[in-house]
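quick one: zinc ion bound model?
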Amino acid sequence: MIKYIAILIFGACVGSFINVIFYRLPKDKSIIYPNSSCPDCNSRIKFYDLIPVLSWIFLKGKCRVCNSAISYNYPLVEVLNSLLWLFIVFLNPYSTIFLNEKLAVVLNCFLITNIFIISYFDFKYLWIPKRALDFLSFIGLVYLFLKYLNGGQNISIFFIDLIAYPIFYFIFEIIRKNGQKIYKKEVLGKGDSFLVASNSLLIGIKGGFLAITIGFIVAAVCETILLILNNSKRSLRYFPLGPYLCLGMICVWIIGADNMWANWEMLIFNFIF
Ligand SMILES: [Zn+2]
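yep, here:
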């Protein structure tokens, strides 16, 4: 129980840092310096007003100095990150590859936070920060090595999963460049190519295919529903693919590629009925 409470608290604290990233990265500002200040009156926010979620509630969503409203998005991001951490620690995917429970918690939590950051930026700006993609590749490589060293994966599968990175990258780049020529506009972002490639390091080549398939199906269904609801005349609007690809990846990460591959009829059956 104490473990889960600690996860919620740490998750909220990291959520507070994610708010800084969300706010400063698009403005090309440093995410470390200076300390947080009110965007309206520029006054430095005191340390006791930086307690995740609670400070916002105590201040009733207003700046202590100038009384201007502080968006509810800040506590929302903190709560969301907490819940994502709780969710992933509870499910503990890939538990067999970690010899140390603390290492599993740290890596899985940072991975889910990174996916959250990627999805947010793609959703809001149709852009994925390169640093987040690099971090995803790095964690993917760590998982790949751990699967080989501790998970009993044989060396040939290790190399196949490793070359999945360039394979997925080039497939998506070919689609992107040809799509651009045919439709005279961007059909995919370059970030999507890096995203599917990095994901494949984490979940392997088989998992990569499954994750892309799930992502495309969910994207097609959701975007069609959104199009009908918005009753938009712009039938070819841009939409972010990243969050859907991430969703596919999370499904494969949690359920396991081999498990999914072996039981796909049952999974679809359970999903529909
Ligand atoms: Zn202020």
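The CA atoms of residues 219 and 244 lie 6 Å apart.
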